[in-house]
Write a structure and sequence with these properties.
Order of helices and strands: EHEEHEHHHEHEEHEEEHEEHEHHHH
Radius of gyration: 20 Å
Shape: globular
Helix content: 40-55%
Low-confidence stretches: none
Bound molecules: nicotinamide-adenine-dinucleotide, thymidine-5'-diphosphate
CATH superfamily of one domain: NAD(P)-binding Rossmann-like Domain
Number of helices: 13
CATH topology of one domain: Rossmann fold
Number of strands: 13
Distance between the termini: 39 Å
Strand order of the largest sheet: 3-2-1-4-5-6-11
Largest sheet: 7 strands, parallel
Mean pLDDT: 96
Structural class: alpha/beta
């Protein structure tokens, strides 16, 4: 039996590395992991699979068409799961250019390279091929106090990040309708868990708390996000890739709506118990109000009914169990955090792959 090959883009990032670890452990796929290694790419997150012969890493920018063509010709994959992106809203506000480049131009370039390869496949391989585009619920804009995002909610992106992801979703849709490329798209709510870069809310709060730094709360802290443990997302991605119907969109969410203040208070009280501060004070004392994020979306919440009904997926973790696992991981992996905070994680990657 020949083992089948799958391309994963962005596999050195937070969600991509969780998906790679899952697929190495729980599938037969050989994975070609295509990642540019931006600041968000970290090969230390792939340490447990680095020696596995079913994991092949390629430092490649998805905006480089010739490099992608060579990878397709060499590895002849049965599908692509596309996660590579610039992913942080605050960075998109301060500098949108990279978001336009990677999320829009990069997705376009990857779609075209995929289409060229896919068009030349034999009929059976052509119809079983999948291009799975991984996206966000932020494309739907902001909710008021009531309601949930469904797969038919109109697109109303508000940040440069979500606008660039919305653009990429539209490109994927057009490549399906115009060229017949068999695509599926999934739109997921906020993820948290091990190996998340400490610029996003939960790892930022944990790492700041552990080093005694202020915990910056944007505005009143009453914005709501719907939190999903990253391994639950990775399991959903595996199912959507393997069983999703071409042309369909699947929303993925944890049904765990929390205000930012609820999240921060939970983190502080768990840390008070697990790693009490030496001065006897509570981590809650580090909470600090700061200026609000411009255009800050008020509330996100996902109706994940379709993926549950059609593909049988539901999350395994509650917010309480997921957050406990997450804190446990950050407390047990001070080296990973230290290397990220000091920038040391880049040193050996740059030695191997250049700047
Ligand atoms: P991340 O920022 O942790 O990782 C992104 C990865 O993409 C990094 O490894 C980076 O090196 C790589 N990359 C960036 N530009 C590239 C390029 N031009 N070519 C090749 N690789 C490149 O992101 P994440 O949080 O793991 O998110 C992964 C995907 O999931 C993104 O598409 C994001 O929009 C989507 N998503 C994220 C969340 C979330 O809560 N983090 C929620 C829903 C959807
Ligand atoms: P973030 O993790 O950046 O995800 P997103 O903006 O994609 O939802 O932020 C989650 C929420 O936390 C969002 O409402 C902004 C807020 N936030 C803070 O209050 N302080 C912070 O330092 C960060 C990074 C986020």
């Amino acid at each position: 039996m020949t083992l089948k090959t799958l391309f994963i883009t962005g596999g050195a990032g937070f969600i991509g590395s969780a998906l790679v670890r899952l697929l190495i452990a729980e599938s037969d796929w050989t994975i070609v992991n295509i990642d540019k290694l931006t600041y968000a790419g970290n090969l230390e997150s792939l340490a447990t699979v680095s020696d596995n012969r079913r994991h092949v890493f390629s430092r490649t920018d998805i905006c480089e068409r010739e490099a992608l063509d060579s990878l397709f010709a060499e590895h002849r994959p049965s599908g692509v799961i596309h996660l590579a992106a610039e992913s942080h809203v605050d960075r998109s506000i301060h500098g949108p250019a990279e978001f336009i480049q990677t999320n829009i131009v990069g997705t376009y370039t990857l779609l075209e390279a995929t289409r060229a390869y896919w068009s030349a496949l034999a009929a059976a391989e052509k119809s079983s091929f999948r291009f799975h585009h991984v996206s966000t619920d932020e494309v739907y804009g902001s909710l008021g106090a009531e309601g949930l995002f469904t797969e038919t909610t109109p697109y109303r992106p508000n940040s440069p990040y979500s606008a660039s992801k919305a653009s990429s979703d539209h490109l994927v849709r057009a490549w399906l309708h115009t060229y017949g490329l068999p695509t599926v798209t999934s739109n997921c709510s906020n993820n948290y868990g091990p190996y998340q870069f400490p610029e996003k809310l939960i790892p930022l709060m944990i790492t700041h708390a552990l080093s005694g730094k202020p915990l910056p709360i944007y505005g009143k802290g009453d914005n709501v996000r719907d939190w999903l443990y990253v391994d639950d997302h990775a399991r959903a991605l595996k199912i959507v890739f393997e069983r999703g119907v071409p042309g369909e969109v699947y929303n993925i969410g944890g049904n765990n709506e929390k205000t930012n203040l609820e999240v921060i208070d939970t983190l502080c009280s768990l840390l008070d118990r697990l790693r009490p501060r030496t001065d006897g004070r509570s981590y809650l004392d580090l909470k600090t109000s700061v200026a609000d994020r411009p255009g800050h979306d008020k509330r996100y919440a996902i109706d994940a009914g379709k993926i549950n009904r059609d593909l049988g997926w539901k999350p395994q973790e509650s917010f309480e169990s997921g957050i406990a696992k997450t804190i446990d991981w950050y407390l047990s992996n001070p080296e990973w955090i230290a290397h990220v905070v000091s920038g040391e994680y880049r040193t050996w990657m740059e030695k191997q792959y250049g700047k």
